[in-house]
Amino acid sequence: MKQIPILIVLGLALSLCNLTSKLKSVGNSNSNSGGSGAPSSSSDITAEKAQPNAAETAALAGGEEIKWSKQGMSWTMPPKWTKVTDDRNSFALRSPGSWDAANLIVSISAMADDFPVDVSIRAYYDGAKTRMKNGELDQLRWLEIDGVKGIQFREATPDKPDDIRRMQWIAYRTYAGQVQMVNIILSTDGKDFPRHQDTMNGVLYSTKLDH
Question: Please, what is the average pLDDT of the chain?
Answer without folding.
Answer: 86
